Amino acid sequence: MGKIVPIGQIAIVVHAGAGEDTEFILKHIPEYEKGLSDAVGAGYSILKKGGSALDAVEAAIVSLEDNKIFNAGRGSALTAAGNVEMCASIMDGKNKKAGAVAIVNNIRNPISFAHELLKSTGLMYMGGIEAVETAKDLGIKTEPDSYFVTDHQWKAFEKERAKKTNKGKIFEKYLKRLHGTVGAVALDVEGNLAAGTSTGGTEYCQPGRIGDSSIIGVGTYADNKTAAVSCTGDGEFLITEVMAYNIAATVKYKGCTIQEAIDHVILEKNEDKTGDMGAIGIDSDGNIGISFNSERMHRAWRTREDFGVKIYK
After folding, report:
1. Who has the most CB within 10 Å: 29, 144, 297, 306?
2. Which domains does the chain have, with CATH numbers?
3. Catalytic pick from 134, 150, 181, 232?
4. What is the pTM of this model?
5. Is 199 annotated in the active site?
6. Mean per-residue pLDDT, 208-229
């Protein structure tokens, strides 16, 4: 570490969840690839114009939230009660300020609400009904419930409801259900880092459950001195590992690159874990890192020299 980031170096990485493969994913690979490309392009266009890493992260995640094929924003999963509960967080690596929202509905882009909390209020973390009212007061765009109920997620909900799963079985089996998260990390021309994460939750989960995506240090972390990280996978594993901060701390204390840090935390330190885990990151030297232990992780990246979109290993 200790190198100076070359002036003009910019980079962005996005992810759209790590987990098991599904028939739906296999049938819609071109749509997923286009969605990832659009998202990384939205963020990169801001960086290319000299915009901030924070704005680039928000733009990339908004693109994913607006795309109904991803489990965030419009494409959010439905809880066992048949409603949407979304979570999101964003962090500025320059001053380590953050904004986060949990179990909110009707907000078109939870990541924009989280960013607005960071920018214009003294609040960092909000959740529930009152949070939605605060979002409205801040001018954050909202949508009716019907906007968030996509055909794909409704079919998934109907399939689970048909099994007549009782309360006990929800607690017992929800980790086996489909989950999804989207996120982005970016480095801007001034050398500032930012990270953000957004999720529509876990399919047919217990209402009121909060996963990793809205928790700073778990789903999202950014510090110009180390790295920007966004995580995805089974939230309970990520929470107990304080995953995003753990990765950034590994960069600092081991003096390694972000790729080495993510590989170490996910593939070595947690090799005995059975849950899905994935992370993307950019370190303060401008290096990109991507790693996951699951069958697939939707991801894309772009720098001045490189561009790529992948779903499988």
Report:
1. 297
2. 11-312 (3.60.20.30)
3. 181
4. 0.92
5. no
6. 96
